[in-house]
Structures are given as C-alpha cells and as structure tokens.
Write a sequence for this structure.
C-alpha cells in the first residue's frame, strides 16, 4: 500500500492520502470523497461477509481440487450417470489427481478407473479419461457387486466392463500398457483379468494372471508377442507394457517380474476394445472371477522408476484411503 498517512481535513469532508516521499509532488496528494470511501468500504465488508458464510470447509476447496477441470469433469459425469458419492469419494479423487499431476508420467496414464463412489454408476466413470470415452460399458454387474471399500467383484461367468478403448488408441506405434489391481485372486476359471484380442491372426493384448504364471501379451502370440514368468503370487498390482517393437515387460507391485526383447510388430491392434474383468476375444467374452481394486491403461512408455512410483501413488492415495 503506497500511502502512509490518512486523516480528515477541510470542511468539505474529504479524505486526504499523503503519499510516500518517493512519489513526485504532483501525485503526492489524492482526494477521495467520503461517499466513495463509504461505498467501497461497504462493498468490502459485504464481500467478507459472503465469504464468511461459506465456512472454513468450503473455503478450503478454493485453489485446490475444485479448480481442477479434470476433477470437475469427473464429478459432472458421475452425477450425469446417476452416480452417487461416498462421504470421502471426492476427497480421495482430488488428492489422487493432485499427486498424479505432479508426476513425470502424468500424460502417460491414458485411462484410470479407481472405482470410487457409493453405487455402480459412479464406479464406472473413469477419473482419467484422456480419450473421452466416458462411462465404462457394463454387462451383468449390479450395485451389490461393488463397494468403495472393497472394489468390484466379478463372477467368472457373466459380468464384465468394457473400457471402450482399443489397444491402438493408447500409444504411438501400437505401444500400450495394461494395469490391474487384484484383491480376491482365485486362480480358477478364466485367467485374463483384462484383454482386447483379435481373432485371426491371433493378436492378443492382455494381462493374464494364472495360478502358477503371469503373462503379458501385446501382439502375435506365435511370434514373440508376449512375456511370461513362472509365478504363484496372488493379489497385487499387476502391470504389463510394450514400449517398443522389441520391449515387453510385466510387473507386480512396482517390481519387475520379467522382460522380453523378441521382435513383434503388435499389429493389428485396432479390432476389439479392451474388456476390464474379462477377455474380449473377437467379440466373445470370458469374464474374470476376481475382484478389481483399480484398472488403468497407459501409452506403454513408463520408465522403471515411473512404474514403481505409480504403484506407490495408487497405494498411498487410493488403496489405503479406501481400505482395500
């Protein structure tokens, strides 16, 4: 504030502001009629009163998640879909996005389905939706299959979600990544947690979680389009990606399980959309019997450090807050 002294002078009831000595003489004295001063004071007090009526809780949202267009879009889409929020759904979503936005791999996460809300309609709305596909398609799931505290439980026979995204939409040059956080592993029935597969030739784009092996496939199975490892792990955050024609890898809980440098073009990758909790084989579907805590799709180019950090981020800002 450039003015140092305020006092009333002269009978015409004006307020005189005396400026700091550094101002030129012609600008050292400004007069403001008291009627204008009163008006401005009233407006200021009114504004303060209005903000005060909002309360501390509402004010805390200004400049944080409430100003994030991605968060606002998610809230609007959940509401439009008939979804409802649990008491902490928005808080968790805001914090998760705020953290993701600070990461080097933020733009590499193309799709994120954190399964937040108090009903199935809300859970099906992706928090990150870079391709603008909207709410996931649903076959068979009902509200009773979902809770924010547990996730979404499949039955291995008739229930599945559709991401509405084809493998070739994820990354450049047919690159891509599939992420699935499992919390009720059975090891029985169909073992592909998520997949979008072409028919002939047998190009698959899937994350396969068997009782004794884990496999990520991105391309022609018979020509080195996969990476597989003997592994009897059950629940966890599984991720597979293809980052180049000769680079495929599979991870669990931020730790690499196996890699493959076999050359495979991964084409065609534009026939079927990727099922979540199911394998889409050229239009025929094979549902997964487990329970999903989170599903995500990437452009396939995350570094090893970024994959490890993404796991930690999801653990700290989604899995732990929801109690999954």
């Amino acid at each position: 504030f450039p003015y140092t002294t305020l006092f009333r002078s002269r009978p015409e009831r004006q307020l005189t502001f005396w400026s700091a000595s550094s101002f030129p003489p012609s600008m050292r004295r400004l007069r403001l009629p008291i009627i204008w001063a009163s008006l401005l004071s009233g407006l200021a007090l009114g504004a303060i009163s209005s903000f005060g009526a909002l309360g501390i809780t509402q004010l805390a949202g200004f400049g944080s998640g409430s100003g994030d267009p991605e968060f606002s879009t998610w809230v609007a889409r959940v509401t439009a879909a008939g979804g409802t929020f649990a008491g902490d759904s928005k808080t968790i979503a805001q914090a998760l996005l705020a953290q993701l936005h600070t990461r080097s791999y933020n733009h590499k996460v193309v799709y994120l389905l954190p399964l937040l809300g108090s009903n199935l309609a809300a859970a099906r709305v992706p928090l990150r939706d870079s391709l603008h596909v909207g709410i996931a398609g649903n076959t068979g799931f009902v509200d009773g299959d979902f809770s924010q505290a547990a996730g979404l439980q499949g039955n291995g026979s008739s229930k599945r979600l559709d991401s509405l995204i084809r493998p070739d939409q994820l990354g450049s040059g047919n690159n891509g990544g599939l992420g699935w956080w499992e919390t009720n592993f059975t090891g029985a029935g169909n073992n592909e947690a998520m997949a979008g597969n072409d028919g002939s030739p047998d190009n698959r784009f899937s994350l396969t979680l068997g009782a004794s092996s884990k496999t990520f496939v991105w391309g022609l199975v018979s020509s080195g389009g996969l990476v597989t490892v003997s592994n009897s792990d059950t629940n966890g955050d599984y991720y597979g990606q293809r980052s180049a024609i000769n680079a495929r890898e599979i991870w669990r809980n931020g730790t690499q399980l196996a890699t493959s440098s076999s050359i495979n073009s991964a084409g065609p990758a534009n026939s079927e959309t990727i099922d979540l909790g199911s394998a889409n084989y050229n239009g025929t579907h094979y549902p997964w019997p487990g329970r999903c805590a989170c599903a995500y799709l990437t452009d396939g180019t995350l570094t090893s450090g970024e994959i490890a950090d993404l796991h930690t981020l999801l653990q700290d800002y989604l899995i732990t807050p929801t109690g999954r």
